[in-house]
User: What shape does this take?
Amino acid sequence: MAYQLPDLPYAYDALEPHISRQTLEFHHDKHHAKYVDNFNQMSEEAGMGNKSLEEVILASWDNPDLQKLHNNAAQAWNHTFYWNCMSPNQGKPSGELADKIQSDLGGMEQFESSFKSAATGQFGSGYAWLVLDKGSLKVVNTPNAVNPIVYNQFPLLTMDVWEHAYYLDYQNGRAKYAEAFMNDLVNWDYVAQQLNYAKQPV
Assistant: This one.
């Protein structure tokens, strides 16, 4: 069964002034939609049309013959996750999430600094992530479409640093985009939900 492009979890103008309606319309309706269309076509051609995005990402990882399929599967997954990582109602970390940020990452200020550094330090296209790795929180970045699940890490938060994610609003100011993302956009309730899912028995 074909994977369906999910709707945004908020209105196109809900993240303004930090991310504009125009950016979300191009990013979701053009870029994300194209990744989904490519994934559906390529997964069928590869005999993986009945597999989930996660299964295809893992099965195609590090396989030169399936690199294009892997990239589109990962981008379809990454974008859906990215939309959910943002909210017009940001909230704050609390409970276990706040405790682990303190114990594993040195507190909120240090985490924010590390995450923004991961975003601005990623050369070219890619993502900054907060992941759970062997029970501990880590901040990592990945190039292009790479998803941390290929390294047995559980994603909790991501920031898309491909230029199409921010160029219409910030031009080449990735640092300003990272600042706005951390200060005004992170959906901390969603991040906490991912941490809870990560602890569930497989």
Q: What stands out?
A: The chain is about 50% helix and 10% strand. The domain at 95-198 is CATH 3.55.40.20 (minor pseudopilin epsh fold).
